[in-house]
Design a protein that fits this description.
heterodimer, A: alpha+beta, Flavocytochrome C3, Chain A, domain 1, Methane Monooxygenase Hydroxylase, Chain G, domain 1, five-stranded parallel β-sheet, B: 248 residues, Ubiquitin-like (UB roll), Fumarate Reductase Iron-sulfur Protein, Chain B, domain 2, two-stranded antiparallel sheet
């Protein structure tokens, strides 16, 4: 049933073979074909601009007030690309290998190889668009090494790489909008996907400014709607990030792959109180120059600068001498949790560890550190009131990136014909743990260089279809169901705001389906989420009506999260191994390292919707490793 | 902390707005300004009142979606800070805070504190890009750029499009926003071919949208969360005049 459609041929020729044999649409026919792109982050903007430039009719939607605000904007550290500018032995194969290994051997070889293969071209594209990457004094592009790899392949624009790449893609999109080749609908949220005769044929959206529910038809629908780490409530994501678009597509038949694999980022600012709405990320690029430690004495009362070197536990350097502070995110987060849980945490709530840049400031001069990380130090000061040039930062793990997402084949098409998922919204490429600076890369590569080819291959058979009729009964049915759900939320008229349910769900997931999971905990979590969902539908309060109403938007998203959370727990419960971000307490070594089970679990779990409160249907896509040998991922 | 709030409430663009009074107990100094508003909204929901609509998303100072006039200053009393990065420790127990939307003819109010900043998108559509279609790009290092030039271009490119410059300007001028984009591309070797058209079209679009002219009060630079310099405005004027005088 799950056909990944991976082309035959040697690994390094698969993508080339695909492109050489994929069907094409002649320029004259492209203007007969409509494509809907939902989301204007890096993957959505880059795809919409690329397709429009090629001559397709593109309609594009985002919930923000302008396309430039999508959460790609917040990625700080950089974007990986295999240029080997540093002459340090980087090759496409090495980048592929690092990514497969970083993902703990739970991703598809062919997809990951293609990601590495297309990476160099992305840097060319971004530079041509005017993205101001960091430069050496020679005028050539600068690189740094980033989280868990031993070559310098990360390109960056101070601590705002995501913002600058997104502005490049946004400007490309604006160029197409200005030329009348893309119709853009900001402040519109997807309510449902419309299928006609088994093919994705359009969407139902809500205009968030007026409340009007609208229908849009197309020959292909692309979801570029990002990740759903915000399900944990406290996360590094934007307040509006949500799972609703992919979840509603899931309920229309698209499979959801590896939903429980959420990256918990090691270098976020710790929670400081109950009222808190988000956790701010400090780029992990700081780990290049910073050292992470906690006091050796768990009753330590002194200020960090007064604790002598001999009384500090640089636990990452101690446990993982080969990689030290640069070990991958899952390892660093779990090691921090281990110290915090053991009572060695620092700060008023004892929920953080120190990230100390004093050595780098001494060795490299302050202005050099300022040029690399100035905005991060400023941000830290604004939030905490502390000057990190004179005192170590306090950091803590926080929910960050969804490795899971809609299941897609090699063409980035879901199991629903004509429905694509790109960027963080799909599950491909990162396996069970994403390497730093690979998310910007995947979003861009999907949007600029992969989906434009694979969607054309599909659209080539749609030339004779003619315009999609939004008066088809399938549109009416989807619209009616969407309006009914909105009204249902408004009619509950209980006493509790949506945020309270969201916070309660987040707490369940952090405790039972976060950095560490167990069978008993997950079973409890499923029961608690069901109870919470019942309570939601009896006690929710959404004031106001169906017009502009932020609370109604939130309630719709939380309603979906209450179903996604349950699926995450099923996913984690059925995977009887520890891999990447998924750490099952039952599967660890005596010194607390993860134990993967390649014999029984070298597959992707893809879940089919079976109804609210029903056990989802489990499909498996086996993972084959022909070019790398899965090994124990040791960073010691 | 106890905080008194006077908040601009306006049901829709067509309706009349007014300032209404609210009061909050138990505000803590570590709360962000928007978390204080979350707290107010939670209270309003429990009283079955319509919560205050306000723009926000990333809450880490980079998306540019938040923006309020706080006691008459764009993004509040701290220099170069977005509303979401402002914390209640900046205020005192018992303070009264006035909250209004960013006001400008080109930024119509949608509801309460939410405004329409799509005019900025149309300025970018008029020419704020380099026409590099996907696939056309040459090898990245074939375009060397001096380190200081790249850094200066970055300084201009860092604009988050929040609109504080417009809100704080007595003329509601978008000169800082527009000039930052023009400067970024004026400095870089890429896109020089389009430079003349870019500056002329973007400046015309700025006027068409109803933004005022710059009269060099430099207030925008004081409020800009990204510390975008008013020198970009001088460059824009120079580029504009040069484009007008150049034959093609």
């Amino acid at each position: 049933m799950l056909k990944a459609k991976i082309p035959d041929g040697p690994l390094e020729q698969k993508w080339n073979l695909y492109r050489s044999t994929a069907k094409l649409v002649s320029p004259a026919n492209r203007k007969k074909l409509d494509v809907i792109v939902v989301g204007t982050g890096l993957s959505g903007s880059s795809l919409a601009a690329s397709l429009a430039d090629a001559g397709y009719l593109v309609t594009c939607f985002c919930f923000q007030d302008t396309a430039r605000r999508a959460h790609s904007v917040a990625a700080q550290g950089g974007v990986n690309a295999c240029k080997n500018y540093k002459n340090d032995g980087d090759t496409v194969f090495r980048m592929f290998h690092d990514t497969i290994k970083g993902g703990d051997f739970r991703s598809r070889e062919a997809n990951v190889y293609r990601l590495a293969e297309c990476s160099a071209q992305l840097i060319d594209q971004a530079v041509a668009q005017g993205v101001p990457f960091a430069r050496e004094y020679s005028g050539y592009l600068s690189n740094r090494s980033f989280g868990g790899v031993q070559v310098s392949r990360t390109f960056y624009a101070r601590g705002q790489t995501g913002q600058q790449l997104l502005l490049g893609a946004y400007q490309a999109l604006m160029r197409q909008v200005g030329a009348g080749r893309v119709q853009l609908f900001p402040r519109h949220e997807l309510l449902d996907l419309v299928l006609i005769e088994g093919k994705a044929r359009g969407i139902v959206v809500r205009n968030m400014d007026t409340g009007a529910v609208e229908r849009h038809g197309a020959h292909a629908v692309v979801l570029a709607t990002g990740g759903f780490g915000k399900i944990y409530y406290l996360s590094t994501l934007a307040m509006g990030c949500n799972a609703s678009a992919i979840w509603r597509a899931h309920k229309r038949g698209a499979f959801f792959a590896n939903p429980s694999w959420t990256q918990i980022h090691p270098t976020s600012l710790p929670q400081s109180g109950e009222y808190q709405s988000k956790l701010t990320l400090m780029s992990e690029s700081l780990r290049n120059d910073g050292r992470i430690w906690v006091p050796k004495n768990n009753a330590e009362q002194r200020a960090p600068n007064d604790i002598p070197e001999s009384e500090r536990d640089y636990y990452l350097e101690r446990r993982y001498p080969a990689f030290g502070n640069l070990c991958p995110r899952d390892i660093a987060s779990r090691a921090a949790k281990e110290r915090i849980d053991a009572g060695y945490g620092v700060g008023p709530l004892k929920n953080a560890v120190y990230l100390d840049l004093s050595k780098a400031i001494r060795e490299q001069r302050k202005h050099q550190i300022e040029e690399k990380y100035g905005n991060l130090f400023r941000m830290y000061q604004k939030i905490t009131g502390i000057d990190a040039y004179t005192e170590p930062m306090r950091i803590s793990p926080a929910a960050h990136f969804s490795m899971g997402g809609l299941w897609v084949d090699y063409e980035l098409m879901t199991n629903v014909l004509g429905l694509y998922a790109i960027g963080e919204a799909n599950f491909a490429d990162h396996g069970a743990n994403r390497l730093g600076a690979n998310s910007l890369l995947q979003a861009c590569v999907d949007g600029y260089f992969i989906a434009p080819y694979t969607i054309a291959n599909y659209l080539a058979d749609e030339i004779k279809t003619g315009p999609v009729d939004v008066n088809h009964p399938a549109f009416a049915a989807a619209e009616e169901a969407a309006v009914r759900q909105l009204q249902r939320l408004l009619d509950i008229q209980g006493t509790l705001p949506a945020d309270q349910f969201h916070k309660a769900l987040g707490k369940i997931l952090y405790d039972k389906c976060g950095l560490s999971r167990s069978r008993a905990g997950l079973e409890e979590a499923i029961a608690s989420i069901r109870t919470l969902r019942d309570q939601f539908y009896s006690e929710l309060c959404v004031p106001g009506g169906p017009d502009m109403n932020s609370e109604l938007e939130k309630a719709g998203r939380v309603a979906d999260y209450l179903e996604v959370g349950e699926l995450m727990c099923y996913d984690a419960l059925t995977r009887e191994e520890s891999c990447g971000a998924h750490f099952r307490e039952e599967h660890q070594t005596s010194d607390g390292e993860a134990v993967r089970n390649d014999q029984d679990f070298a597959f992707t779990s893809a879940w089919e919707w079976a109804g609210v409160g029903q056990e989802p249907i489990w499909h498996k896509e086996p993972l084959r490793f022909d070019y790398v040998t899965p090994t124990v991922r040791s960073y010691k | 902390m106890r905080i008194q709030l006077k908040i601009w409430r306006q049901d829709s663009q067509a309706k009349q707005g007014r300032l209404l009074d609210y009061s909050l107990q138990n505000v803590t100094p570590d709360m962000s300004f928007l978390e204080m508003l979350d707290m107010l909204n939670e209270q309003l929901i429990q009283q079955k009142e319509r919560p205050v609509e306000f723009d926000h998303d990333c809450r880490e100072g980079i998306c540019g979606q938040c923006g309020l006039m706080i006691n008459g200053r764009a993004h509040g009393p701290l220099p170069n800070t977005t509303t979401c990065q402002l914390h209640m420790r900046t205020f005192k127990d018992g303070d009264t805070i006035y909250l209004e939307p960013f006001r400008a003819t080109a930024f119509p109010i949608k509801c309460d504190l939410k405004i329409d900043r799509s005019a900025f998108d149309r300025i970018i559509q008029a020419g704020g890009y380099i026409s590099a279609s996907t696939g056309e790009a040459p090898e990245a290092n074939s375009i060397p750029i001096r380190h200081d030039v790249a850094e200066a271009a970055f300084d201009a490119a860092a604009c988050i499009g929040c609109g504080a410059c417009v809100a704080t300007c007595k003329n509601s001028s978008a000169a800082l926003f527009t000039s930052a984009k023009i400067t970024q591309f004026a400095l870089l070797p890429q896109g020089q071919i389009e430079a003349r058209r870019r500056v002329l079209q973007m400046v015309v679009q700025t006027d068409t949208e109803g933004f005022g002219h710059c009269s060099n009060t430099e207030a925008c630079q004081v409020e800009c969360p990204q510390q975008i310099s008013v020198l970009h405005i001088a460059r824009m004027n120079w580029e504009y005049n040069r484009a007008l005088l150049s034959p093609n």
